[in-house]
UniProtKB/TrEMBL annotation:
It comes from Zingiber officinale. This is Dirigent protein. One of its GO terms (biological process) is phenylpropanoid biosynthetic process. Homodimer. The lineage of its organism: Eukaryota, Viridiplantae, Streptophyta, Embryophyta, Tracheophyta. Belongs to the plant dirigent protein family. It comes from the Eukaryota. It is found in: Secreted, Extracellular space, Apoplast. Keywords: Apoplast, Secreted. InterPro entries: Allene_oxi_cyc_Dirigent, Dirigent. Gene3D superfamilies: Allene oxide cyclase-like (2.40.480.10).
Length: 147
């Protein structure tokens, strides 16, 4: 199964409407990837790249600055579906999030799921496709198999 959706994030430092915040800020870092930093997030998942695209769910999780070089962080998160045919279901994911230029493709593991995604395994390819001073939009391509 292949699913595509878009993560709409209000980045660190974008004021009270930010969807990514520091839980622990050990080192200053624009990306949150400072070694020892912990961020939490609750981003919108939309069906398209545009900000007025229908909302299909939330990307809820945390990231930890786990690289001494401060070029990546470990993420652990859930894609929680709140609309459409997967309403009430979720996917569990984990993996590294690199600090990289727009357009870089990176992979994280699908480690499980609930509801229609029970016993899911697979991988998620993420490509950051749009950035402004306050927002970051990523294309998420989930490739899912079931045991």
């Amino acid at each position: 199964m292949h699913l595509r959706f878009y993560n709409h994030e209000r980045i660190l430092g974008s004021g009270p409407s930010a969807t990514v915040v520091y839980a622990v800020q050990r080192r200053d870092s624009n990306s949150g990837a400072g070694f020892g930093n912990v961020i939490v997030y609750d981003n919108l998942l939309r069906s398209g790249v545009e900000t007025d695209s229908p909302i299909v769910g939330r990307n809820q999780g945390m990231g930890v600055g786990s690289s001494l070089a401060e070029n990546s962080g470990l993420t652990n998160f859930q894609l929680v579906f709140t609309a459409g045919k997967y309403t009430g279901s979720s996917l569990a994911l984990q993996g590294l999030f690199p600090v990289a230029p727009l357009g870089t493709v990176f992979e994280r593991a699908i480690t499980g799921g609930t509801g229609k995604f029970r016993l899911a395994r697979g991988y998620l390819l993420t490509t950051e496709v749009r950035a402004t001073n306050t927002t970051l939009t990523g294309q998420l391509d989930a490739y899912i198999t079931f045991r």
